């Protein structure tokens, strides 16, 4: 038996557990009213161990599996699409954008990706999954309030980016040695 088989099995096991935990967090967010935006933010943190241990390809496969299960299993399509199209892949993108210099360009790219993905997600949501409740919510909400909501979303995204950086440091300093015992 090749030596790589054991490592591959551990990779699959870790990603399977992280995928199940991510879907559980998303389902919990579906059960809680405010979880539509908070649950995808929490679930995207689980890509960090896979990305740090096995690289961006493995983290993207974990994201793809979680996103597919979320879209198939969650009744709240807004939550599922917010994870699948806006935040799920962001930890991998954040790592790739860390090499962009100067910092102002890096932040412009981060916010540009977030805003483009958010607007595309809502456009898709309104065209494919146009539920009467969602259409009524957008009709009742004026453009000024929608712009304010996007502004609040940008603030939450800024805090998410900072938290991802801090969690990555904590993962390397404290959590990695515990996970590595099983890998």
> Rg to the nearest angstrom?
18 Å
Name the overall outline.
Answer: globular
Percentage of residues assigned to helices: over 70%
Could you describe the largest sheet, including whether it forms a barrel?
A: none
Derived from helix and strand composition plus strand pairing, the structural class reads: mainly alpha
The figure for the number of domains is 1
Instruction: Report the top-level CATH class.
Output: Mainly Alpha
Total of helices: 9
Write the CATH architecture name: Orthogonal Bundle
Q: Look up the CATH topology.
A: Arp2/3 complex 21 kDa subunit ARPC3
Mean pLDDT: 92
Give the SSE string.
HHHHHHHHH
- Sequence stretches where pLDDT stays below 50 over 5 or more residues: none
Q: What is the β-strand count?
A: 0
Distance between the terminal alpha carbons, to the nearest Å?
18 Å
Strand fraction: under 5%
Keywords:
183 residues; mainly alpha; Arp2/3 complex 21 kDa subunit ARPC3; 86% helix
Notes on the protein architecture:
The chain is mainly α and 183 residues long. It has a single domain (3-180), classed as Arp2/3 complex 21 kDa subunit ARPC3 (Orthogonal Bundle), CATH 1.10.1760. It has helices at residues 3-31, 35-44, 47-54, 56-73, 77-87, 90-97, 103-128, 132-140, 143-180. α1 (3-31) packs antiparallel against α2 (35-44), α2 runs parallel beside α5 (77-87) and α5 runs antiparallel to α7.
């Amino acid at each position: 038996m090749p030596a790589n088989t054991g490592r591959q099995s551990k990779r699959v096991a870790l990603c399977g557990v992280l995928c199940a935990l991510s879907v559980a967090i998303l389902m919990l967010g579906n059960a809680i009213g405010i979880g539509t935006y908070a649950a995808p933010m929490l679930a995207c943190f689980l890509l960090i161990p896979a990305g740090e241990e096995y690289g961006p390809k493995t983290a993207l496969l974990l994201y793809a599996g979680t996103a597919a299960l979320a879209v198939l299993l969650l009744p709240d399509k807004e939550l599922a699409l917010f994870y699948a199209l806006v935040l799920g892949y962001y930890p991998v993108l954040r790592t790739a954008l860390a090499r962009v210099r100067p910092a102002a360009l890096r932040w412009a790219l981060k916010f540009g990706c977030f805003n483009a993905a958010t607007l595309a997600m809502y456009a898709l949501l309104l065209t494919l999954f146009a539920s009467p409740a969602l259409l009524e919510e957008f009709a009742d909400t004026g453009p000024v309030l929608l712009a304010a909501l996007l502004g609040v979303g940008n603030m939450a995204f800024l805090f998410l980016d900072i938290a991802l950086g801090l969690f990555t440091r904590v993962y390397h300093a404290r959590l990695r040695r515990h996970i590595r015992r099983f890998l």
